[in-house]
UniProtKB/TrEMBL annotation:
<dbReference type="GO" id="GO:0008203">
    <property type="term" value="P:cholesterol metabolic process"/>
</dbReference>
<comment type="similarity">
    <text>Belongs to the GMC oxidoreductase family.</text>
</comment>
<keyword id="KW-0753">Steroid metabolism</keyword>
<dbReference type="GO" id="GO:0016995">
    <property type="term" value="F:cholesterol oxidase activity"/>
</dbReference>
<dbReference type="GO" id="GO:0004769">
    <property type="term" value="F:steroid Delta-isomerase activity"/>
</dbReference>
<dbReference type="InterPro" id="IPR036188">
    <property type="entry name" value="FAD/NAD-bd_sf"/>
</dbReference>
<keyword id="KW-0413">Isomerase</keyword>
<feature type="domain" description="FAD dependent oxidoreductase">
    <location>
        <begin position="9"/>
        <end position="42"/>
    </location>
</feature>
<dbReference type="InterPro" id="IPR052542">
    <property type="entry name" value="Cholesterol_Oxidase"/>
</dbReference>
<keyword id="KW-0614">Plasmid</keyword>
<keyword id="KW-0443">Lipid metabolism</keyword>
<keyword id="KW-0274">FAD</keyword>
<dbReference type="Pfam" id="PF01266">
    <property type="entry name" value="DAO"/>
</dbReference>
<protein>
    <recommendedName>
        <fullName>Cholesterol oxidase</fullName>
        <ecNumber>1.1.3.6</ecNumber>
        <ecNumber>5.3.3.1</ecNumber>
    </recommendedName>
</protein>
<feature type="domain" description="Glucose-methanol-choline oxidoreductase C-terminal">
    <location>
        <begin position="452"/>
        <end position="507"/>
    </location>
</feature>
<feature type="domain" description="Glucose-methanol-choline oxidoreductase N-terminal">
    <location>
        <begin position="66"/>
        <end position="260"/>
    </location>
</feature>
<dbReference type="Pfam" id="PF05199">
    <property type="entry name" value="GMC_oxred_C"/>
</dbReference>
Length: 551
């Protein structure tokens, strides 16, 4: 390992929502900012329209199999924003008053829907988020809306970070957007950060942190081989006065666990209280004749929601159960979601199977009807029951394959509350889609990879209680001043909706405090940059909330 450490004012670990937002504001404020990203840096023209091994799909994803829970996340410059479906709803008001497994309010007293709304506004301005209308939704979304209406439920088009003037309806969003229609961080915060001098280093995987004699931090990293992520191409150290951790809820706690031998005791909540955002999927095999009979829907060229090439990601959700008057664990959203071949076809079970439910002869038969599958994504309130065990020797997992696949140290045993909420949401999906013979519905199996999530949260969560939270209400790691966590691991619990908007808003909210901490450590930096495109109306909304304005 190199004995000569580089130096930077601020070192950001990860380039997803939590990392990119912090990097932009700190660089725009005058700090010397370096971003380390473990994945590759792909340009839009490199995003391929296939799901072959070795393509952009396997290069930019990280699939980590744990004990009872598997995590699918981004692994590239831009992080999860490159592979997400761009659904950007705000969290319901009741979420911030949740008690969950600890029996008292999980969120810090300083954070509520009211106090977070101005920061949501900032994100909305920066990412050009728009609410779709019914002319924007996919056929699959329209079918889901019609089924909801037919069964006495309501449905709504989703707010999305998509420029519909550029969208070609190709539905390859999970492999990266070739057309820059999806508002990933590659087209806003990251280029703006670079314009202000931030340096982004792909294929740099942080291993642990240690402390310098003057109270700064040394960030130790390995350089990952470009094609085979199991191999190392070097290593190094960078010293920074401020460290912003945004490696994702499946990696940030692992880095901190490995750092404990060098930094001293970590807060108890580091690596505990993990939430998969309560996610679960159901597959419905649609009877095409019934869809035509009940709703008058026609599939046109026959590809309207048939697998890869036509359509969009999620466009319609049913939010009838997002009612704050309902008891905890009975509130959830139901969202139509396209999921590509691979996990979607493997984990789907056969409705009414007489033999094995996710493989075998009967599974082969329903695969012939793949063009008529509709997937419904459920987000419930879980119990934050995930716990990370001892960290692997390097990285966040033991890498099994050249790209994408690893074995992690997360253990997840669903509680009675979580299982009950999943069962209730499964029953609702079944009732909606099986009414009058429209479809046959079954949830995805948990037998193969356990539960699964594309939105990992809460593994280093913020809060007021030092016993049950790793961060204070400004996202600073307890007992380790100068280390901040701004990714999904900071979110206290399941949100019942897609979390990207809330992660981004919390990151925006954290920046003024990070700037203040940087100033105290002698960094010449200010806060006050506009949105990446220069818009400033959102900034006016947050000025009264800044620490200096409150005295």
């Amino acid at each position: 390992m190199s004995t000569t450490a580089e130096r930077t004012d601020v070192l950001v670990i990860g380039s997803g929502f939590g990392g990119a937002i912090a990097a932009y504001h700190l660089a725009a404020g005058g700090a010397d900012v370096t971003v380390l990203e473990r994945g590759p840096w792909l340009e839009s023209k490199e995003f391929e329209h296939d799901y072959k091994l070795g393509s952009s799909y396997t290069r930019v994803f990280d699939f980590t199999v744990g004990d009872g829970m598997s995590i699918l996340g981004g692994n590239c410059v831009g992080g999860g924003s490159v592979v997400y479906f761009a659904a950007m709803p705000r969290a319901p008001r009741f979420v911030f008053d949740r008690q969950g497994s600890i029996g008292r309010r999980m969120w810090p007293g300083a954070v509520s829907r009211d106090t977070l709304d101005p920061w949501y506004d900032r994100v909305e301005e920066s990412l050009s988020i728009t609410k779709q209308n019914w002319n924007d939704v996919s056929y699959a979304g329209g079918l889901w809306a019609a089924a909801c209406n037919h069964s006495g439920r309501t449905a709504n088009p989703l707010a999305v970070a998509i420029d519909n003037t550029k969208c070609v309806n190709c539905n390859w969003m999970m492999a990266g957007c070739r057309f820059e229609a999806k508002q990933s961080l590659l087209v806003n915060y990251l280029p703006a950060a670079i314009a202000h001098g931030a340096r982004i280093r792909p294929l740099h995987e942080v291993q642990h942190l240690s402390r310098t004699p003057d109270g700064s931090y040394r960030v130790h990293y390995n350089v990952v081989h470009d094609d085979d992520y199991r191999l190392q191409a070097g290593s190094g150290v960078i010293e920074a006065k401020i460290v912003v951790m945004a490696a994702g809820a499946g990696a940030t706690p692992v880095i901190l666990q490995r750092s404990e031998a060098h930094l001293g005791t970590m807060p108890r909540a580091v690596g505990r209280y993990f939430s998969g955002n309560g996610e679960r999927l159901n597959t419905a095999v649609i009877d095409e004749a019934k869809a035509a009979e009940l709703f008058g829907l026609e599939r046109g060229d026959g590809l309207a929601y048939a697998a890869n090439h036509i359509g969009k990601g999620p466009t319609v959700a049913s939010w009838d159960k997002l009612d704050g008057s309902l008891p905890e664990y009975s509130r959830y959203s139901l969202e139509q979601l396209y999921f590509p071949p691979g996990l979607g076809t493997i984990l789907a079970q056969v409705p009414g199977a007489t033999g094995p439910s996710w493989f075998g002869k009967e599974k082969k038969e329903i695969l012939k009807q793949w063009a008529s599958w509709l997937t419904i994504f459920t987000m419930i309130e879980d119990d934050n029951e995930g716990v990370f065990g001892p960290p692997p020797a390097t990285g966040n997992s033991h890498r099994i394959s050249q790209q994408m696949l690893g074995r992690g140290n997360l253990r997840y045993e669903p509680t009675k509350n979580t299982l009950g909420a999943w069962a209730a949401s499964d029953a609702e999906v079944k009732e909606i889609l099986e009414k009058d013979g429209l479809a046959k519905v079954m949830p995805w199996t948990n037998d193969l990879v356990g539960a699964y999530t594309v939105h990992p949260l809460s593994s280093c969560r913020m809060g007021d209680d030092p016993h049950t939270s790793a961060l204070d209400d400004r996202n600073e790691l307890r007992d380790h001043p100068g280390i901040f966590v701004t990714d999904g691991s900071a979110v206290p619990g399941a949100l019942t909706v897609n979390p990207a908007m809330t992660i981004a808003a919390l990151a925006e909210r954290a920046v003024p405090g990070i700037v203040q901490a940087a100033q105290r450590r002698g960094i010449s930096v200010t806060y006050g940059a506009p949105a990446p495109d220069g818009s400033a109306s959102g900034r006016k909304n947050v000025l009264p909330l800044l620490p200096s304005a409150r005295g």
